[in-house]
Amino acid sequence: MTDLQGNGQDAVLEGRRISAGDAEATIAYKLRLAQILAFRSFEERLADRGRAPRYLGLLAIIQSHPGQPQSRLAEAVALRRSSLVTILDLLGEEGLIERRPSAEDRRTNGIWLTQAGEAMVAELLAESRRHDAMLTDGLSPAEIETTLRALDRMIANLRDGEAG
């Protein structure tokens, strides 16, 4: 558990939290630590759901934008297309997605959720809302909104930095 009082104790060694030194004062370090802890907590709750919890963001994008080509999906989740192909293959093997020829461009396939994929996304999103409630316990609605806006700005800065 991360200490939210800001006394710089995050890593664990021999049962005691130890400081990451100067990294404690960086947003990148805190974001990465929070991501690791949140990801692990969410996946552990849903270990019986296969690989789907790991790729909830991708599955939710496919649900919201069915039929998108792999290249657009890779861009949306900030992955290289080659990495996404492997993930889509795994999700296809689990029966959660399917590739269909694009109506606009016969050279590409669109990605769609199967019925099982739709059901899985609904189930995982419900669990994600419960997980978010745990993550934000003790934060006011205004603090949650401020955090979301700050994260959106950081994501936009990073995306802009990649493009420029």
Automatic annotation (TrEMBL):
Keywords: DNA-binding, Transcription, Transcription regulation. Residues 24-156 form the HTH marR-type domain. InterPro entries: HTH_MarR-typ, WH-like_DNA-bd_sf, WH_DNA-bd_sf. The keyword Secreted does not apply. Pfam families: MarR (PF01047). Gene3D superfamilies: Winged helix-like DNA-binding domain superfamily/Winged helix DNA-binding domain. The keyword Membrane does not apply. This is MarR family transcriptional regulator. The lineage of its organism: Bacteria, Pseudomonadati, Pseudomonadota, Alphaproteobacteria, Hyphomicrobiales.
